[in-house]
Amino acid sequence: MRRVVRGFWGPRKESAEALAGRWKQTLDRLADLLPAAASGAGASEVRTWRHIHASGPATDLRSDEASLLGALRAVQEADGWTDRTGTGLRLVTAGEPGWEIEVSGRAGGTSESLLQAVVIGVKSPDDADVPDAELLTMVAEVWEPDFGGVTDDDVLDGLEDDADFGPDEPSVGWVGYLSPGRAALLPDGMAAARKEVRAGGVLLEIATRGDVDDVVQANVRLRDAGALEPLPRPMNRAAL
What we know:
Low-confidence stretches: none
Radius of gyration: 18 Å
Strand order of the largest sheet: 3-2-4-5-6-1-7-8-10-9
Largest sheet: 10 strands, antiparallel
Number of strands: 10
Order of helices and strands: EHHEEHEEEHEHEHEEH
Structural class: alpha+beta
Shape: globular
């Protein structure tokens, strides 16, 4: 079984040091929330992940802040890099049988047309209890996105096929996150499902996994209310 936890935001310039801090928080909290998935990343508090490069073989990368900072700086020093697109990493770890985490992110960029993002893919046994709300809360608190959600291919296909959502349009999954500006536009009847997030914005428990129709209809209501309005282009801010 595979689910994806996602967060997106607009241009927000950040230093490599700031990004390394966000990455370290992400990896540490993933290990706490998904110990069965992260167990293969190393037995010590500082774990080792597989760093997937755009070209060449994967390498080991420790989850301490100095190692993450070195990896981010190496990306920025590569030919063709520009601070407009942001700085990306892609890390993978496999734990107990049936468990795997892949984390990819692009952040710190200033592009007026390209969203910044963090995407966490979680593979788990079919009967595993995965803390979806807690995973999305972590993304909201660490990365301060504009919107995000916990979703899978069935939901994404339903949004595209049944509600004409484009691949770049804001949407949520069976659990969703909206920044404060978007949360202020929640339609009547959806306020009861909201939970305040410490970093700002709200978490929405929309449906149980597998209720694709309910998720699609909730997205339609949110879009009609303006809560899923795309950031204006050219983008000049990180959140609505």
